[in-house]
């Protein structure tokens, strides 16, 4: 019987802590059955990694998304043309992570660059991977007014039940990492069925981890926790995340 692997729906392979140890990181993850990675490139320098032999070697496992992040110091609007080029060359499977981040006081710029990238995703018919901190209601309105048909997922999702229900009106999945939502939200997400798992490595270490940064192998930590909290068998979770992946990117 066909046994799909685990998919890390969101990680940063071109971030130096991971990229310097790429072979080791990928091999440790593969040993646990993790077979696919959606890596997020967020600036020109990271976009260029997509074409490097070092990453091309793992072509079979790595898929890329790219975007201009609302709160990443290396992200710049100047990279928009390079981002468009990646779409033209079909080097990416999604635009992201993009979105709104309430920790930074530049909301007008964030909104402008988000709209520009949502347009780009629409023009190239690509899914969108959202990063949102404290700005879910603003994002909800922007999508409602301009892009109600958007598809993709909300990465690192951890918000209230009300927000979860609201975003369920869109064709958007919820992607879970070590910052797992509360039980009510988790149950809602599982019942709805459109979800992914991610590490966001090297960010979002599991609680109590003493490591310097988050590793790709920790995807299984997230899945174990979700399985434990929901009493859903890991094989069921595996099948579902794979079907969701096929549905969105297949
Ligand atoms: Zn990320």
Ligands, deduplicated? zinc ion
Order of helices and strands: EHHEHHEHEHEHEHEHEHH
**Quick one: biggest sheet?**
8 strands, parallel
Number of spatially distinct domains: 1
Distance between the termini: 20 Å
Outline type: globular
Count the beta strands: 8
Structural class: alpha/beta
CATH-defined fold name? TIM Barrel
Low-confidence stretches: none
Named CATH architecture = Alpha-Beta Barrel
Average pLDDT, all residues = 96
CATH class: Alpha Beta
Q: Which radius of gyration do the C-alpha atoms yield? A: 17 Å
Brief rundown of the structure:
The chain has 250 residues and is of the alpha/beta class. The chain is built from eleven helices and eight strands. The longest helix has 17 residues, at 107-123.
Characteristics:
11 helices; TIM Barrel; single chain; binds zinc ion; 250 residues; eight-stranded parallel beta sheet; alpha/beta
Question: Explain this structure to me?
Answer:
The chain is an alpha/beta fold. The protein has one domain (6-249): TIM Barrel (Alpha-Beta Barrel). Helix content is 42%, strand content 18%. It has 11 helices and 8 strands. The chain has helices at residues 16-19, 22-31, 44-49, 53-56, 80-88, 107-123, 136-146, 161-167, 183-192, 219-230, 234-249, and strands spanning 6-11, 34-41, 62-66, 94-101, 128-133, 151-154, 171-176, 195-197. An 8-stranded parallel sheet has the order 1-2-3-4-5-6-7-8, sandwiched between helices. Strand 5, helix 7 and strand 6 form a beta-alpha-beta unit. It is globular and about 45 Å long. The two termini are 20 Å apart. It binds zinc ion. Zinc ion is lined by residues 10, 12, 40, 97, 200, 203. Zinc ion binds at residues 10, 12, 40, 97, 200, 203.
